[in-house]
Each structure stands twice: as C-alpha cells, then as structure tokens.
Design goal:
The complex is a heterodimer of chains A (about 300) and B (about 220). With about 300 residues, chain A is mainly alpha-helical. Chain A has 12 helices and no strands. Chain B has about 220 residues and is mostly helical. In chain B, about 75% of the residues lie in helices and about 0% in strands. The relative contact order of chain B is 0.10. The chains are: A mainly alpha (about 300), B mainly alpha (about 220).
C-alpha cells in the first residue's frame, strides 16, 4: 500500500537533487548556504522519523541559523529568453496546457480511486499521494514529447525554489510554533483575556466578541484551528450556547468561518499569504494580504451578523 | 500572562522585518521558557512538531514540472489563449476561477488547485493577459495588483468552499470539540451552515473583482 512515506521519499530526493545542483551553480554567490539548506530539508524528508525529536529540533536550529544569517541567495538571471519562450509556446502551447492539467486531473481521479478501491493507497492521504503520482506522470509525459536536456526540469525547478527561498519552510515552521504555544497554554490565557472584555448581559456584545476574537486570535496563531477550541471555551460555550441557548452547530460552523476571515489578513498564515507573494515574485511581500483585506473585513461583519441572526 | 511574550516577539519581529524563521525560533524559546520548560525540551517539542508537519512542505515537488512547462512557454500560451477569447475580461476570468475553486473545495478536492500548481503557471498569466487586452499600458503596480488578486481569489475560493465538505479537518475538529462538551452534532449540520457564508464570500469578492477590472481600465486611460 502506498502511504505518505512514498511522497516524503519523493520530496526528499527532489530537495537532495536541488541541493546538489545548487552546489555546482557558481553564478550564485551563496551556493553553499542554499545547498546546505535544501540538503538539510532532504534529510528531514528522508530520515525525519529516525532522527528523534531532539535530533529534528537540532536540524531545525541549523535551518534557522543558515536562513537567519542571510546565507541563502539566488543566482541572477537563468530565465529562458522571452522570444524563445514565445517561439516554443507557438509550437507546443496546447500540449503544455494538457501536461499542466495532468497534475490536478490525476489528483482528482486518484482521490476517488483510492477511496473506492481500498488497499492501494492510504485513503486518508489519497489526495497528496495522487498529487505526487500526477507530478511523476506529468514529468514523464512532458519529457517524452519535449525532449529537453535531462536536467532542465530540475534546474528550472531549483531556480523557482531559490526564488521562494527560506519562505518555502515558513508554513511548516509556523505550524511547529503553534505546537509549542499549545504546550505552553497560550490559548487559555488569550481566551481568558477576551472573556473579560465582554459587557454583562449583552447578546450582541457576546456575539461580537466571539466573532472578532476568532478572527484576531486566528491572526495571531495563523490558523483558525488553534483559535477555535480556545474561543469556544472562553465565549462560545459559556455565553452563546449555555447562557443564551444558541444553536451549537451555527455558533461553531460560522465562528470557524469568522476565523478564516482572520487567516486572510495575517502574515502568520504564510502558506496562503506570504509564499504566493514570493512565488509570483511580487515586490510587496504583503501584496496578497492587501488584496484580501477588502473581502475579509466585510465578510467578517457578515459572519458575525449571521451568528446573531441564525443561532438564536 | 508571561507566556504571551511569544506573541509580542512575533508581532515585533514581523514588523521590524527580522528574518521570520529566526523570529519564530526566538518566540518558541521565549514561550517555552516562560512556561517553565527547559531548552532541550523546547527544542525537542519543536523538532517533533516539525517532523509531524512535513506534509506542509511537500507541495514543492511540483516545481520541476512547472519549471519545465514554463521554459517551453506555458505562461505565454496561457496569455495567448485569453487574448483569443473575446469575452474573457479580468473580472469574469477571476470570478469564474473563484466559483470553480469554491465548487471543487466544497466536494473535498482542495489540493487539485493551488498557488504552485495553478495560480503561478495559469491563473496569474491569464489574468494579466485579460487586463492587458483592455489596457495595453498596464503599469508595474497594476500588474502587481492583478497578480496579488489572482492569489487572493484562490485563497478565498478555498477557504469559503472547503467547509461545505463533510470530511474536512475543520468540521471534524468542531465535532470533536463540541462532543467534549456533550453535544452530539452530525457533520452535515456544520456543512449546511457554511453555505450562507460561502454565498456571501462569492458575492463580496465577485463585486471587488468587478471593481478591480474597472480600476485597471480607468487608471490606464488617465495615464
């Protein structure tokens, strides 16, 4: 049976090859830093389960030391010239689109296949496993028809990853920080603080505090999942559900979505907000957040109103 | 109260633009120490969480395919395609993608689209081409904004579609937490109550996309 380990091995090998190719890229003044960074990430993917908790912690410290001292950079240029791209696009255009769509199509088909036919792959990880298989199929099909120099996909992939830089592991780092916050009981303290700000006897005040608290605490943690149990314990359960007899399904479901509005407005949700800015090579790292605030704020107001209208 | 120091470090560190990885590590150490943990225990806790969340970083395996396709002109082709469609305006294109992303997420297919696999190679160049079709002299700032809205549209479609799906993590979390308080609630109830917000998100964001389209035209005309 295929499990997530298959994807980790694939990712580990990809990062290892990125590191190796980076090491030989003399046009990058920081090639040793890049090679060490992606190399360590390869070790984490391939051997993470055998390193032990403390060993993994040391690996993270090394990653942080490399990035924190500015040892990661990118080689200038390396783009395929625009006129050559246009010429190739005229020739291969429809085929390229087809290959690009192989990845989502296989992810889609595999998700259903692995759920309907048990035993092939871990059904809980069906989409991620299918995505990885889709990548392999797309690569094989593309290589067979386009016949590029054998290392071209890896070299171009490495160039894209170097453009993203250390931000590539920011989401994973923030998720880990969340675990330390949970261990230290940060959530309970914040929940108590918000609980004390609510005016006595005001249903709308309590609803407002719950919705705003979900959004704000999500912005701090970067994740509505971390905010939900805390805000429910501090405000949702004692006031909205118990005291005012609100429908728990409405309070929970729409409260969670109020939290999602917070996710749109915080750099802590790096994989949604900062990584795309790097990937699209925006000048402003907060450009995506800026585009989202105008949707997030009115939607947050709507969510608070929905709880008030539908739950009571 | 002292454990909140980690949050202050994060906010200050991000605002002062220190390297975020460094800020996160310092915040984790400070929070752990404030809670009475020793340094080795904090490092181990962080390492365990890092190893448990590796799946977050596996998305980068798509980059060799994207790199290959882009070297052969995928972005150009996406642009040409939009150029040929007469009715494909910026607003309609991104609104269509928003609806598609919400619909796919609502049936649980959250990972079939995303920033590396669809936004960078397809949606962003298409959006740029659609904006250019109406305004040849698109400024760099306008180009930035079109790209940023392409990414924003992907996020909004994902967030306000996925909670309609029964088996998504957030619904299981809600069910689990409420069970802890003695409330037995079917996942379907959470799903249904995500629909009004999904509709509101679509209406608000589609309206903003129309405004974006008009803004791109107007600024071009006055420049």
């Amino acid at each position: 049976m295929i499990t997530l380990d298959f994807v980790y091995v694939l990712a580990g090998l990809t990062f290892a090859l990125f590191a190796l190719l980076g090491l030989y890229d003399r046009s990058n003044p920081k090639r040793f830093g890049n090679a060490a960074f992606w190399g360590l990430l390869a070790v984490s993917m391939l051997l993470g389960d055998t390193l032990g908790d403390f060993g993994n912690g040391l690996l993270v410290l090394a990653l942080v030391a490399i990035a924190g001292t500015g040892q990661i950079g990118r080689a200038p240029g390396g783009d395929v010239p625009a006129d050559l791209q246009a010429e190739r696009a005229a020739k291969h255009g429809p085929f390229l689109l087809l290959v690009a769509l192989i990845i989502p199509a296989v992810a889609l088909a595999g998700t259903f296949l692995f759920k309907w036919v048990p035993g092939l792959a871990d059904p809980k990880q069906a989409t991620l496993i299918s995505l990885a298989i889709g990548v392999l199929i797309a690569l094989a099909v593309g290589m067979a028809r386009l016949k590029p120099p054998p290392l071209l996909p890896l070299q171009q992939g490495r160039r894209l990853l170097d453009a993203v830089g250390w931000a590539a592991i920011l989401p994973q780092m923030l998720a880990s920080l969340g675990a330390v916050f949970a261990l230290a009981g940060v959530g309970e303290v914040v929940g108590d603080l918000i609980g004390t700000t609510i005016p006595e006897g005001s249903l709308f005040g309590a609803t407002l505090a719950f919705g705003l608290g979900m959004a704000l605490f999500t912005m701090v943690m970067g994740n509505a999942f971390a905010a939900f149990p805390v805000m429910l314990a501090a405000v949702g359960m004692p006031l909205l559900i118990k005291q005012y007899d609100g429908d728990p399904a409405v309070v929970a479901a729409i409260g969670m979505l109020a939290g999602f509005c917070g996710t749109l407005m915080t750099p802590m949700a790096a994989n949604f907000n900062l990584v795309p800015a790097a990937l699209l090579e925006l000048k402003n790292p907060y450009g995506v957040i800026r585009a989202q605030v105008g949707t997030a704020l009115p939607l947050l107001a709507v969510n608070i109103l929905f709880i008030y209208l539908f739950a009571f | 109260m002292l454990v909140l120091i980690g949050i202050l470090i994060i906010i200050a560190g991000f605002m002062l633009r220190f390297n975020p990885l460094l800020v996160i590590m310092v915040s984790a150490l400070a929070t752990g120490l404030a809670a009475g943990l020793d340094v080795a225990a904090i490092v181990a806790a962080f390492g365990k969480a890092f190893n448990d969340t590796r799946y977050v970083s596996i998305i980068w395996i798509v980059l060799p395919v994207i790199g290959l396709l882009e070297a052969y002109g995928l972005q150009q082709h996406a642009r040409t395609l939009i150029g040929r469609m007469k009715g494909a305006t910026l607003g309609r294109l991104l609104t269509g993608y928003l609806l598609l992303r919400q619909a796919l997420s609502a049936v649980g297919l959250t990972s079939v689209a995303g920033h590396p696999q669809t936004v960078r190679p397809l949606v962003a160049p298409m959006a740029e081409a659609a904006a250019e079709a109406k305004n040849e002299a698109l400024s760099d700032d306008q180009r930035e904004e079109v790209k940023a809205f392409s990414a924003a549209t992907d996020n909004i479609g994902l967030f306000f579609g996925e909670d309609i799906f029964l088996a998504i993590g957030s619904i299981l979390l809600m069910k689990g937490v409420l069970e802890g308080y003695g409330y037995q609630i079917e996942p379907l109830h959470f799903s249904l109550w995500a629909i009004p917000t999904a509709i509101a998100a679509f209406v608000i964001h589609a309206f903003r996309l129309r405004r974006l389209e008009q803004r791109m035209k107007k600024q071009g005309a006055s420049a």
